[in-house]
């Protein structure tokens, strides 16, 4: 389901067409791309945290792209356990560079999408202007292979997360000098009841 101001677009990915939702921004060249949580557990671009990240970037004037990974919704292909999904993300970034004249990238991801965003950032020739990772999956995905990160990152982590172990996230970024970790007390994985504080924190990190 698209929201007011969002356009449905189709982006050619390595496994076939990817469905995406685009908003046009008023800051020339600035695009925010948002990666959704694990499809195996029902994650899609319609996730509330993903939508919150999109609205935050949109309200700051960026064009935004949220998209479904391969095998999700109308996107072609099959789930690839993080490998192909990183390729999907890079394809979306390249599309934004060509079609939206993107010159500055904000890359955001939630949970599984946090890993994908970090892996895509690591594969790019230039680190994104902003990398925001919300409850990134650092244990179930190949996060250790990305270290040390090639640039700064801001991590948002609920202290009561029961999907991604908070201590594993804190440990993963403890030796990353460019990483900032913001903890949310009494907050679970999906930030139920905490989306407003999350939006405010992401706004500050992006600003």
Structure description:
The chain is of the alpha/beta class. It has one domain: Alpha/Beta hydrolase fold, catalytic domain (Rossmann fold, 3-Layer(aba) Sandwich), CATH 3.40.50. Helix content is 30%, strand content 24%. The protein has 5 helices and 8 strands, in the order E-E-E-H-E-H-E-H-E-E-H-E-H. The protein has an 8-stranded mixed beta sheet, sandwiched between helices. Helix 1 crosses helix 5 and helix 2 crosses helix 3. The longest helix is centred in the middle third of the chain and has 17 residues, at 83-99. The protein starts with 6 loop residues before the first strand and ends with a helix. The mean pLDDT is 97.
Fold blueprint:
Layout: E1 7-13, E2 16-23, E3 30-35, H1 48-59, E4 63-67, H2 83-99, E5 104-110, H3 112-123, E6 130-134, E7 153-158, H4 166-174, E8 179-184, H5 195-206
Helix pairs in contact: 1-5, 2-3
Keywords: Membrane, Transmembrane, Transmembrane helix
Pfam families: Abhydrolase_1
Domain AB hydrolase-1: 51-124
CATH class: Alpha Beta
- What is the helix tally? 5
Query: What distance separates the N and C termini?
Result: 28 Å
The CATH homologous superfamily is termed Alpha/Beta hydrolase fold, catalytic domain
General shape:
globular
Helix content: 25-40%
* CATH fold category name: Rossmann fold
Main pleated-sheet profile: 8 strands, mixed
* Class from helix and strand fractions: alpha/beta
Please identify, by name, the CATH architecture: 3-Layer(aba) Sandwich
Number of domains: 1
Keywords: Membrane, Transmembrane, Transmembrane helix
Domain AB hydrolase-1: 51-124
Transmembrane segments: 105-127
Organism: Halopseudomonas sabulinigri
